[in-house]
Amino acid sequence: MTSLISLDNSQIEYRFSDKNHCETLLFLHGLGANLSQFDEQYIFFKDIYNVLLVNLRGHGNSKVAEPSNACDYQLSKIAEDVTALVNILGIKKVHLVGNSMGGNIGFEILNSHGYLLSSLTTFGTTVKLKASCWHILTLRLLYKLIPKACIAEISSCTGRTHLSRQKIKKMMLCAQKLTLQLVLPNISEFDYCSVIRNSKIPILVIKAEKDKSINKAINSTVEEIENKKNVQLICMKDVGHFANLDKPHHFNNMLRAFIASKSRISK
Fold first, then answer.
1. Residue limits of the AB hydrolase-1 domain (predicted)?
2. pLDDT exceeding 70 applies to what percent of the chain?
């Protein structure tokens, strides 16, 4: 069961297992996906932590009041939606877990509202990226012209198992083509190296072995990551961009071990 909340210029859909546990896990999906990506994590963690799943603006039933251009989907504005929701729900701190663009939102929140984070875990996310203009223009044109069914089929190829491919396809069939086009320019160029450099909270960067394009970018900033004592880099074998869907059991246990080692509950 999901809920809707109205913010200043957006409406956000979320699912919250508020069971009065001491700590809260917040899961954020990437572009074109939705909160159902973390159904397995919701079930696995809800008896240990409060679990919050969010549909980012433009996904599911989350929407901007009057979307007009890419400015409505700036990462900083999406991050503001998330922090506003966390504050309204009365949550003081979260262990944030973000996939792809969800990881970018995690870095945005670390930069602007770091006091809200107990830890940050990213997968399918890089710290730094600069895509060429022609590449972005080509992708935007493809998102505009190609039928959604084709986009879903192509996206599903990133899955490593039959079940993960089915799930990815199902999520992408629900994606809004306008959102894909308007978000894309905002995730084509960013640099969170200084955010990492100034960070003090525990950070886990999961490098999915088969996520080739993201790994190229991660490799270019690996020194930045490994030089920080509070940052841990782990390679997860035989998984792609949606690591939690490819190997949910392995992912859950890895995440549980990391969070438990940093958690107030374990101390």
1. 24-125
2. 98
Query: 21 is in which domain, residue-wise?
Result: 3-129+190-262
Is residue 38 helix, strand or coil? helix
- Residues 6 or more apart in contact with residue 148 via CB below 8 angstroms: 172, 173, 175, 177
pTM above the 0.85 mark?
yes
Half-sphere exposure at residue 239, Cβ-oriented, CA atoms within 13 angstroms? 21
Q: How far apart are CA 17 and CA 42, in angstroms?
A: 8
Please write the tens of the pLDDT for every residue from 43-57: 999 999 999 999 999
Per-residue CA distances from 83 to 26, 111, 216 (Å) = 11, 12, 30
The CATH number for 40's domain is 3.40.50.1820
Instruction: Kindly state the tokens that stand for 39.
Output: 């159904």
Instruction: List b or e across 14-42, with b for residues whose CB sees 16 or more CB atoms inside 10 angstroms.
Output: bbbbeeebebbbbbbbbbbbbbbbbbbbb
Question: Does a structural domain hold residue 173?
Answer: no
Whether the CB-CB separation of 15 and 1 falls below 8 Å is answered with: yes
Strand (E) positions, the chain?
A: 3-6, 10-16, 24-28, 50-55, 63-64, 94-99, 117-123, 128-130, 189-191, 203-208, 231-236
Given CA atoms 204, 80, 52, 169 in this order, what sign does their dihedral have?
negative
Q: How far is CA 174 from the centre of its chain?
A: 17
What is the number of structural domains in the chain? 1
